[in-house]
Write a structure and sequence with these properties.
alpha+beta, 6-stranded mixed beta sheet, 6 helices
Length: about 230
């Protein structure tokens, strides 16, 4: 059996084996939350609520694993609808409130012009949201994280480049050599590996720049429609 096929089958089996018990546990926890015949104490309710939230998180990770398995196996396709990439990014940035309680906010720059793209808007929104959250989490002090949107004239075909970084590091990130983006960030489940696959499925790339502190920077390129 080819290695890729074996890998896809393993992921599919893992999704099935995790999804069934997680669904059962989640169902019983919700029954406990709604049970009025034998009311829970306040301490018991807090424990059940926390367990139910953790179970829902596990279910979400299983769903992400399922999406990864399907994309890798080629059993699900990405929609191809006309959209304005920079408008989509601006919309997503307005919904990402990660780290606002620490005085850190996201600011989109350079997105005034159109950036036509044939793509899967819901999946792209999820991918950008995951990447933005990852970068926001890594800023240690209050301030602004820039999302710099550019039409990249270094390529013969129309190409967009989106740099997410502290404003003073955007240009250095734009000019630096590319190194692999570190997807191993805690607290985000499988959202980043899934985001990379979505970007690549649109013919794009996700990477970090080869600069000091590059872990707190994400660079995304996507081809635009003519």
């Amino acid at each position: 059996m080819p290695r890729d096929e074996s890998y896809s089958q393993l992921l599919s089996l893992a999704v099935h084996e995790f999804r069934t018990p997680a669904s059962v546990v989640g169902g019983y926890l919700r029954m406990l939350q709604r049970d009025t015949d034998a009311p829970l104490s306040e301490r018991q309710r807090r424990m059940v609520d926390e367990a139910e939230r953790s179970c829902q998180r596990l279910v979400a990770i299983v769903a992400e694993l399922s999406d990864i398995a399907k994309l890798d196996a080629g059993t699900v396709g990405l929609a191809r609808q006309p959209l304005n990439l920079f408008a989509l990014i601006t919309e997503v940035a307005g919904t990402v409130h990660e780290s606002q309680d620490r005085g850190i906010r996201l600011q989109v720059n350079g997105a005034s012009g159109p950036a036509p793209l044939e793509g899967d808007a819901p999946r792209l929104k999820a991918a950008f949201a995951a990447i933005f959250r990852a970068i926001l989490r890594e800023r240690a002090s209050e301030g602004v994280v820039a999302v710099e949107c550019r039409i990249d004239d270094r390529h013969p075909s129309r190409q967009s480049t989106v740099v997410t970084a502290d404003a003073e590091r955007v240009q250095a990130a734009y000019e630096a050599a590319a190194v692999p983006f570190d997807e191993k960030r805690g607290g985000l489940g499988l959202a980043l590996p899934l985001a990379r696959r979505i970007i690549e499925g649109h013919g794009g790339r996700l990477w970090s720049p080869d600069v000091e502190g590059g872990r707190g920077i994400a660079v995304i390129s996507l081809p635009l429609s003519e």
